[in-house]
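job 3f2a | input accepted
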Amino acid sequence: MNPLLYGHSNEERIVAVQQKDDRTMREYVRTSDGITLADVSFFPFLFLSRKNLIEGFPEHFWLKQLEGSNHFSFLCVFQNWRTMWEAVRHILERYNKHASQRVDHFKDLRELFLYSDPVTQFLMQTGKTLFKGMKFDELHRLQLDIETYTSGHYRFSNASREGDDVIIVALSDSTGWSHILHQKDMTEKELLRTLVRIIQERDPDVIEGHNIFNFDLPYLLKRAELHQVPLALGRDRTIPRVFDRANADGDRAFDFSLIDIAGRHIIDTLHLVQEYDGVKRNMESHGLKYAARYFGFASPDRQYVPGEKISW
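job 3f2a | predicted structure (312 res):
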């Protein structure tokens, strides 16, 4: 297949795309029978303003001169993700040989433009679109919230402390279903196994929570590790992958761990509230209970339990 001749696809109800390996993307497609998986060839690409920057690169690649007189005149396409990044290093080395000022990162090189996210590249290259043709209520969304125990005289629970269990997991989804797991009925190990089973059975496209990136998911992952329970939440039954990242502005208050669940999206409503208040600047807190009252979601007769009384 010549990737320079890639055409746009027919409309598909794709709910997620995942990079499977250096040359393959996995599509999760909604059909009348549920979700089907399709593995599709992937050809990473970048743009150059001068083709001599790629000259001498030893690996196979395709080069196409683009029409028009815009700055980025050439499209370079590669057989796999690894080769593309080797080409980026080659381009930087060739540029720096003759440059008056050295460039150490591809983002600082005006002669090169590159999308560093493989899913973005794949969707652009193929013309495919996530959720195309779907209504919002066709998206299967699941909400998750946990409560934890704090042992000893500590103020906050810590997933690494043996006694600081996950004692409650509250679940609901966009179909109106809801369920609560708690340690009145089972041990923490059994609770974690049951959670995995339920998420696989409900099979959501999206998992939602408030501060889910920094608390709920990392806590569940650590407790599962302590109990040697594979927290296989991915649609391919893989364990979530964790990547640390910080806010681009260096604001430590917005730091969070990026967590990737194969075939599913994660929405953290804390981030949405912070974005909203970044403009409004009138919220007293970004916490879940206050946000629910602020936006009018909390029922008038809602019962509030102090944090220190949760386990009781």
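job 3f2a | Confidence is low (pLDDT under 50) at residues 247-254.
job 3f2a | closed
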